[in-house]
Amino acid sequence: MEHEHIDPDFKELYDQYIRAEKAESLKIYEEIASEIELPHKRINRWWYPAAAAILILFATTWVITSDHSPFRSKPKYTEAEVRQSLEQTIRALSICSKTVKEEFSRIEDLTAMSAAIKPSKKGASRSNQKQESNSTKNYIP
Amino acid sequence: MHQEVFLNLIEPLKPNLFGFAFRMLRNREDAQDAMQELMLKLWNNRKKLETTGNIKTYAFTALYRDCIDRLRKRNRFRLVTGTDFIEVLDNTRIDRDFENIDLIRQIRMAMDNLPPKQKIILELRDFQDFDYDEISTMLNMTVNAVRVNVARSRATISEKMKKEISYGT
Questions:
Q1: Which of the residues A84, B79, B110, B135 has the least number of beta carbons within 10 Å of its own beta carbon?
Q2: How many domains does chain A have?
Q3: Residue A106 sits in which domain range?
Q4: Alpha-carbon span A45 to A56, nearest angstrom
Q5: What global pTM score does this model have?
Q6: Residues in chain B whose beta carbon is closer than 8 A to a beta carbon of chain A?
Q7: What is the DSSP string of B120-137?
């Protein structure tokens, strides 16, 4: 090492000092070298709360929305049960409507029959006219 | 800059950078912290480094600034609390195989007593082999001022050592 402006008597000692200092710092460096984290592997401290917040958000969303979540109350009926029940209802309703249709057609038949069996309406109209004339007779102005 | 390229550039500089921080701060944990901060800073500025080119100059400039900040904080802390972060000069770590071990310890004390700016300049010149131009750019000084500071600090240490030796004999 070139040392300009240096007392020649002091130079040798100074060189020894530099060597000693370098050797010492190198020894300490070798002891701590593994503790100096490589920057590209280092996770910044602010990442920890941020990551925790994101995880909590995801967990909460999952608990609220997922079908597999153990915290979510299960529906009373399964989809198959609801479908079966609806099918039964439809079947029952269609049976009902068939019965109602049959009843209506029977009523129509009966009405037609009774109309055919009834005597003619002449007699009835004559008695009505009689009643009407009686009522006009009793009228005193 | 790709991760591998970055590591290839930084890895060889790490022992020297640590040595610089350790000698400036004289505290292992502080030097380690400064190194950690520096690594992060370099990684975050890796795109800038591609265009800047001289990664060594950039790294030492960033590190010396960080060290100065730490020393200022430490001085404030010392003023407030009356305690000191500086470790007791750990002379036992200097290899005993060195001749003149006591004189080497004396030089270290003289070096540590230099004003921070002079200490940095001497460190960059004598320990890290930067030339005067580079140091002047890094510290934002004229080349002449760097030369003067180098000569002055060496003379200060040399004078002190002469006194020590003359007292010793």
A1: B79
A2: 2
A3: 79-114
A4: 18
A5: 0.61
A6: 3, 6-7, 14-15, 18-19, 22-23, 28, 31-32, 35-36, 39-40, 42-44, 93-95, 98-101, 103-104, 107-108, 111, 126-127, 129, 147, 150-151, 154-155, 157-158, 161-162
A7: HHHIIIIIT---HHHHHH
